[in-house]
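Q: Protein A?
A:
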Amino acid sequence: MAPVRLWLTTALILLAATPLRSGNYYWDHLRTGSATDALRLLKAQGYRDVKNLRREGMRYEATATHNHTVMQVLVDPFTGIIIPINASSN
């Protein structure tokens, strides 16, 4: 019974230590939380004319154009989430 318990304990420790994966090779293997990651994410999601990219804690804030709308966005390069703050049409 002890070997089974040891094996199960080891398996649970390894499982807990395994980082969550998004299923996207780029974000799972190359993200570092850098400004470059934030910029690449914005461009991959169709944002253009990215300006004023600056760090705000663990996220980045920027002004960018998406679907002909200029908006401020928050970018989390670790999760890949882009949050529009405000928008104004051109």
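Q: Protein B?
A:
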Amino acid sequence: MTRWIYNGSRTINDSQPWTDDYGIQHPSNWHMWTLEEKQAKGLVEVIETQQPDSRLYHWGQNPDGTYISTPKALDDSIVPEGSTDRVQKGLRSQFIDQVKQQQQSLLAQTDWAVIRKQDTGKAISEAIAIYRAAVRAKSVLMREAIVATTSIEDFEALLASGALSDWPTQE
């Protein structure tokens, strides 16, 4: 579905009747007008562009449907707050924290086997031991890939590759 902007401020959708600034009501089939007829009525087509990834960009939308975006910082920074400073985490730290949280969540599912071994001495099954080692190894690979990024484009490629969501599964 195409969107249109009327007189630079109002959004008009295809197949919807609308009233212009002069009180003239236009029928729902106005979308059949030629481009010249639409432009003569003050309509400008909004070319939809892909919304920036909010994990990587600060962004806003202009009235014409385009986006303005600024990449988020890759590295941590110090932000002065009164008499103290606080650390503003950059993308690398944020994503590394997410990987660590996911690792913790995945390992928690089999913590019972580790606790049972400590309590009773009963061995951890080979399948669980292999799974836990695979989760830890994957976490290390993910964190190394995050640290290796040098630009926002590297981060986009890393996310698109699925490398940060390809966790081992328990059998």
